[in-house]
Amino acid sequence: MTGTTKNGAHDVPLLEARGITKQFGTVTANDTVDLVVREGEIHALLGENGAGKSTLVKILYGILEPNAGNVLWRGEAIRLRAPADAQALGIGMVFQHFSLFEALTVAENITLALPRDTSTREVARKVRAISAEYGLPLDPDRHVYRLSVGERQRIEIVRCLMQNPRLIIMDEPTAVLTPQEADKLFETLIRLAGEGCSILYISHRLEEVKRICSTATVLRRGKVVAACDPRKETAASLARMMVGADIDDVKPPGEHAFGPVRLSVAGLSTTPEDPLGTALHDISFEVRGGEVLGIAGVAGNGQEELFEALSGIVPVRRPETMAIDGKPVGRAGINARRRMGAAFAPEERIGEAAVARFKLSENILLSGHETEGVVSGGFINARGARTLATEVIERFDVRVGGPDPEAGSLSGGNLQKFVVGREMRRAPGVVVLSQPTWGVDAGAAAVIRQALIDLAAQGSAVVVISQDLDEIFQIADSIAAISHGRLSAVYPANEMDMEKAGLLMGGVHASETGEAVDAA
Amino acid sequence: MRLELERRGEQSRVMTVLSPVIAIGLTLVAGAILFLLAGIHPAEGIYTYFISPVTTAYSAQEVLVKASPLILIALGLSLCFQANVWNIGAEGQYTLGAILGGWLALAFGNFSSPLVLPAVLVAGIAGGLLWAAIPALLKTVFRTNEILTSLMLTYVALLLLDYLVRGPLRDPAGFNFPESALFGPSAVLPTLASGGRLHLGVLFAFGLAIIMAFAMPTTLKGFQIRTIGQAPKAARFAGFGTNGMILFVFLVSGGLAGLAGISEVSGTIGQLLPVISPGYGFTAIIVAFLGRLNPIGIVFAGLIMSISFIGGEAAQIRLGLPIDVAKVFQGFLLFFILACDTLIYYRLRLLKPRAAT
Hints:
The structure holds 2 protein chains of 2 kinds.
Chain A: E1 15-24, E2 27-37, E3 42-46, H1 53-60, E4 68-73, E5 76-78, H2 83-89, E6 91-94, H3 106-112, H4 120-133, H5 149-161, E7 167-171, H6 179-194, E8 198-203, H7 206-212, E9 215-220, E10 223-228, H8 235-243, E11 261-270, E12 280-288, E13 292-296, H9 303-311, E14 322-324, E15 327-328, H10 334-339, E16 342-345, H11 360-368, E17 375-376, E18 379-380, H12 382-395, H13 412-424, E19 430-434, H14 442-457, E20 461-466, H15 469-475, E21 478-483, E22 486-487, E23 491-492, H16 498-505, H17 510-513
Parallel strand pairs in A: 3-8, 3-9, 6-7, 7-8, 13-20, 13-21, 16-19, 19-20
Antiparallel strand pairs in A: 1-2, 1-4, 4-5, 9-10, 11-12, 11-14, 14-15, 17-18, 21-22, 21-23
Chain B: E1 2-7, H1 13-37, H2 42-51, H3 57-82, H4 90-108, H5 116-142, H6 146-166, H7 200-218, H8 220-230, H9 232-238, H10 242-269, H11 280-290, H12 295-318, H13 325-345, E2 346-351
Antiparallel strand pairs in B: 1-2
């Protein structure tokens, strides 16, 4: 049967996907997926990483073509060969990773995506109008590199709105926002929905889905497993639908006293090599044995530079700026710090923490060539490295396709378990991790977080740099926030709440939020 | 119906080996078409180019002699390319090796000592190494693009050689011909069999290929080189000093090109001439890729390239084709090898049209 009426008849949905199947080689990313989006609703698309959400929306936006199934727009079958087809119908998309030119202004970036004869000045005028109308503050003449991630997202939203869309697809829009910025976004979305624009909202944050979405479709391993009204569900019941099982709660650390200071940073300031990078200003903190310090912050506020300085990837000039177990290490490189018992896990899984085309045993060598005894006299002990890889695979339940596969063949969550597990293996005294569970499924995230808590319980100092406030509240003993390259004071976790953390992430510092309590 | 490239989960081991074979096949097909257009029977053309060079003992020796500089240079270049360092100037490093080594050989004159030859070889290696150090330092210190600097330095080196053999190094007893005196007997690479053309340089090439085939997968150095090429940020995270590695691969490849240069003038030519290479330094780039940047692969690729050089000469004589046709073949081959490499990471699938609904 096909719907024949058009325009707004209530029983004809705005967009309908029927039996969408998409295969990549042997992997079926979407398996006969059905989806119905009605006019003016905020529709959540829920699922773990790798559940097939991104594939589905890429099909709906014309980036991918399905192997089977079809898409109906107001009841009529359509074929989306390219994003231009989708845009012509009134489908807009705000991507998770923005495609913006940092050296151009807001208006110039938007003009680039429009037909060639559009004038930048005209665009700037429209941007002002839209940003005023929807309460999305955005200066069209500012250069993108000066903008926060939240502002950059606004560019994408405004770019979308300029095309008068009927349906906006948003891929994890709050992943990069502070709680306060997210609140503003929700207002805008609710207002748009009120005007009849539908929103397909991809997220794995259940609380916000419950808050703004009226319908949810849940994907698991490429299949639709449930369609529900999220407002009538609990976060736990939604999570069960997504994962298909109860997720083990991370066991909170038992009461334990903190030991001596194992990592101290005093007056760390840097000038970035990259002109678009963030300078660090006078960062000081201490982490004691047994303590997990969570450093919250919105991406691009100096986290990368902080990780590079803490790890010794970019050493600093004064040795006494940083100390591991009391020994100054400011000038020491990453391998010297590893030899002193420190371990590091950078944010980028592929390309930094691991090399996609290297086997897991070779990836063991990346961080372990100095400390794991797998290299002697310049020769690699391949068997030893394989043994270590197997050990990490077993201990952290890394799901692999073969005995020693290439890193690139692992799913994000499994690779991250390997990357973190590789560092945990030798029980480092100090460990610094950046976004340890970013883009990782809930099951893997729980394993990783538990490993960090357990490591701290053994007397190690753990620093977790994370954008994910839930994660920080789950595992940290003390919390600080980084904003524009400055670190707030460190607060004990039990004195923190979401709102306070959000303010610190937004750069509102101690004097305005109450007295600074150094976690003593 | 349409074709679609589909990403593979892991790189295909079969295709890693098969891709050069397919590329060679396609080159032969393209060559056959070329011969047809030129009015030559394709079978005869291909026989002359690729089969005739290995049919006599003399030309088979010649194939080995021409292959060895290609192999030596390509081995060095394979290190650079694996580390994502684009040394395009091996021809210049080869030339400088020949100049410095040749200059020392001429300075020794007829002085006889078993140490003369090693000294000449070391000078040759040093010449190539120093010439490579220029773009290497420009890259590590000033972030200059090494493709441009190494390539431009090649022409400086070629003109320098030209100047030297017409000026300071010209043979005073040479009737003003632009060439140096012949090297003394103790500065000449010994031949492997009396009367043959094979000299010690051939052994250098093959021996080094074997050493590298063993060392690259088993040493930390080899691992570092691959890491830098695959993921520079991962190399930083591993604490492999990037600048040091760039210098290392540049200097090694320059040194090997220099060794190839001095081996050629000391083993094959016996003196310095204005032109001492049919473009070995550039052809070696193709050899390196055709050989999958793998030492054993490079040996085979060097032999194939060398055959096409000799075949080109044969074709010039027998078929009246210009010598540059050999270069056209080399171009074909590089083009096809790069295209076929796609198959290592992607598989080709024929898609049936979707059933209309």
